[in-house]
């Protein structure tokens, strides 16, 4: 069975036409993209690399990485999101290959073909995140980079990512996140280590609702990013 929740796919498919509207429900992705893009590029050196973006949605990160000189493949299971991503290429002129395929399916088809794999804001939306992590190690070359980002599981994360973002600030539609699916950094690190992806760095992403600014720092209590390397 495909590792996907039909209700999650439907939720994002209904919003797909707004993916590239920076004032829409996807505004947070537009605002954090420069931060995560520079962090990834600084660690992996994207220029000339073959990169896979898992759960690419409408292609915000995929296009950003292509702009850094990477040869990018973006995969997702939402037909509508992929249609929007492909349509936006006509406007941006970016070179990204979008495919409808799961990470697990592509891992069986193209093992070890990518220098860099990104899986951002996606693990908390699938039934079996550990399966995606295992697919990532199969997809990346020995010595290659894998990047994850997701949401911590603790009371503060619930307060900020669900109550604050969805109900108070209304930055995201209600029901975007399910607290039960949030992932502690220790759990993600354990899954990664168990398949040969030892973590190299963990960094937090914070947001100030007054200044409406995001920044990367040491606070991983809500949103965080993890850099791993496949063992040779």
Automatic annotation (TrEMBL):
Protein name: Ubiquinone biosynthesis O-methyltransferase
Spans through the membrane: none
GO biological process, one term: methylation
Binding sites annotated in the UniProt record for S-adenosyl-L-methionine: 36, 55, 76, 120
CDD domains: AdoMet_MTases (cd02440)
Pfam families named among the record's database cross-references: Methyltransf_23
The protein's annotated pathway: Cofactor biosynthesis; ubiquinone biosynthesis
Similarity comment text for this entry: Belongs to the methyltransferase superfamily. UbiG/COQ3 family.
The organism's place on the tree of life at top rank: Bacteria
């Amino acid at each position: 069975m495909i590792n996907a929740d039909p209700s999650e796919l439907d939720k994002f498919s209904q919003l797909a036409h707004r993916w590239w509207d920076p004032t829409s429900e996807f505004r947070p992705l537009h605002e954090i993209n420069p931060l995560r893009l520079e962090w990834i590029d600084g660690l992996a050196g994207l220029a000339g690399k073959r990169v896979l973006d898992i759960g690419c949605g409408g292609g915000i990160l995929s296009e950003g990485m292509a702009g850094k000189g990477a040869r990018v493949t973006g995969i997702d299971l939402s037909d509508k999101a992929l249609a929007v991503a492909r349509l936006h290429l006509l406007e941006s002129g970016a070179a990204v290959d979008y495919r409808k395929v799961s990470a697990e399916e592509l891992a069986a088809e193209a093992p070890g073909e990518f220098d860099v794999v990104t899986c951002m804001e996606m693990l908390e939306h699938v039934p079996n995140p550990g399966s995606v992590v295992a697919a990532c190690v199969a997809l990346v070359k020995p010595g290659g980079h894998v990047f994850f980002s997701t949401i911590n599981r603790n009371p503060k994360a619930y307060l900020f990512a669900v109550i604050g973002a969805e109900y108070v600030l209304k930055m995201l539609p209600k029901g975007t996140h399910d607290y039960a699916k949030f992932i502690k950094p220790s759990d993600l690190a354990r899954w990664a280590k168990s398949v040969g992806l030892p973590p190299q760095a963990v960094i937090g992403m914070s947001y100030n609702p007054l200044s409406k600014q995001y920044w990367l720092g040491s606070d991983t209590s809500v949103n965080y990013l993890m850099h791993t390397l496949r063992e040779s």
